[in-house]
């Protein structure tokens, strides 16, 4: 029996993986323990910052103990979800080392939201956190820990030392940037999904208009739901409008630029998103992805909405040479 074909398989195949190197994995596996700390080393090496990360009262009381092995079930993410996203809701009481690793990952993402923290890197962080918890807090152990942590974080950062914080935007601005008007939103015949919803302001705004709306994010504010946009089950022929502002497509562009194996994962997820649209439904996102939109079959109609002038003047999307506009892909 033939395997059912992947939605958009042809497009994914046409979209070339820039490089299949697993740079981050190699870096994390081979980090040089004796390398000198560079000037860009993350500040987590300072004892005060490590302590601040563990400032939770429970954590402080029980910080040093030998009972901190992370249950194997915690380190097994559901299919399609990266370990980093799966662990994000973990509490200190569930698995202290995983909890601490999540704080370190947040620290990294606050520094640069595009950093990829793959499962191998997450396991290395968890294992380092276990070492911290299980060690005795002699000065020597703490110094050695801090040195390893700095190297680990610096290696995950790699050349990615730019600070690129994740901004939050108002629902009104998001709709203007996406070129979706309020009337279209209120008259939607079916549900809305916001991908990378952040603080879920657009979801709340749409619900206030009476629209059935959901949002997903790796680090959401309710009513947004925690999910990895690369692994989320978008369903089939389900959504009337899917939005993603400064979210999925921005990260797709970065993955493409970074010559990173994850660009193919983005291409696959992009096609799954499109096939989850109802007929007549729209995927509206900013910024556009001309390198993949031009490959779409005629079952999809592609159009572009330039950013309004005031938003274009403020936008910081000029470094990759691609047009600064939103895209609408409509399923015919
Ligand atoms: C620049 S913010 C934009 C938030 C929101 N769309 C807005 O316009 O205010 C990008 C969002 O993408 C989310 N994100 C990054 N990688 C993700 C992933 N793999 N899965 C789900 N969400 C992700 C981040 O947590 C962040 O909230």
Give a short overview.
The protein has 332 residues and is α/β, with parallel strands linked by helices. Helix content is 41%, strand content 13%. The site of S-adenosylmethionine has 19 residues, from strand 2.
Supply the number of structural domains.
2
Question: What small molecules does the structure contain?
Answer: S-adenosylmethionine
Query: What is the CATH top level name of the largest domain?
Result: Alpha Beta
Strand order of the largest sheet: 3-2-1-4-5-7-6
Uncertain stretches:
8-66, 136-140
Number of DSSP strand runs: 7
- Please name the fourth-level CATH homologous superfamily of the largest domain: Vaccinia Virus protein VP39
**Number of helices, counting only DSSP H or I runs of 4 residues or more:** 15
* Percent range for β-strand residues: 5-15%
- Computed CA radius of gyration, to the nearest angstrom: 21 Å
User: From the 3D coordinates, which CATH architecture of the largest domain would you assign?
Assistant: 3-Layer(aba) Sandwich
State the main characteristics.
alpha/beta, 13% strand, Rossmann fold, 41% helix
Helices and strands in order:
Layout: H1 9-14, H2 23-29, H3 47-53, H4 57-61, H5 83-87, H6 96-111, H7 119-134, H8 139-157, H9 171-178, H10 182-186, E1 192-195, H11 201-208, E2 213-217, E3 225-226, E4 239-245, H12 248-257, H13 262-275, E5 277-286, H14 290-293, E6 300-306, H15 309-314, E7 325-331
Helix pairs in contact: 6-7, 7-8, 9-11, 12-13
Bound molecules: S-adenosylmethionine.
Overall description:
It is a single chain. The protein has 332 residues and is α/β, with parallel strands linked by helices. It folds into 2 domains: 174 residues, Vaccinia Virus protein VP39 (Rossmann fold, 3-Layer(aba) Sandwich), CATH 3.40.50; 127 residues, no CATH class. Helices cover 41% and strands 13% of the residues. It is built from 15 helices and 7 strands. Strands 3-2-1-4-5-7-6 form a 7-stranded mixed sheet, sandwiched between helices. Helix 11 links the parallel strand 1 and strand 2. Helix 6 packs across helix 7, helix 9 packs across helix 11 and helix 12 runs antiparallel to helix 13. The radius of gyration is 21 Å and the shape is globular. The structure holds S-adenosylmethionine. The site of S-adenosylmethionine has 19 residues, from strand 2.
